[in-house]
Amino acid sequence: MLRLADVVRLAWTTALVVWSRVVAKCRMALGAERGQVFRSVLGSAFRVISVGVMLGVLTSLATNRVISSQVWTVATFDPIALISGVAAIVILLLHFRRWV
Prior knowledge:
By secondary structure, this protein is mainly alpha-helical. It has helices at 2-29, 34-70, 79-99.
């Protein structure tokens, strides 16, 4: 079942990449600047990544109490993991701003 989920995720990601390349080529053909196309592609990628990070944080916060009640060495709140997630988003934003 996990393999099927991996195949579906890979197919979905491939379809999104192909679609974004087609859209970028069409926008360039219609006269869009390189920065506008780059901003559009990275903006859509950042939206997908940020939604995934938010869902992951919410899921981890929701399931932490259940896991910590079953496993002794797991804390209910791990600030290092949350800070590293926020740092990853900030680094991604700074990197994105540099290219635009």
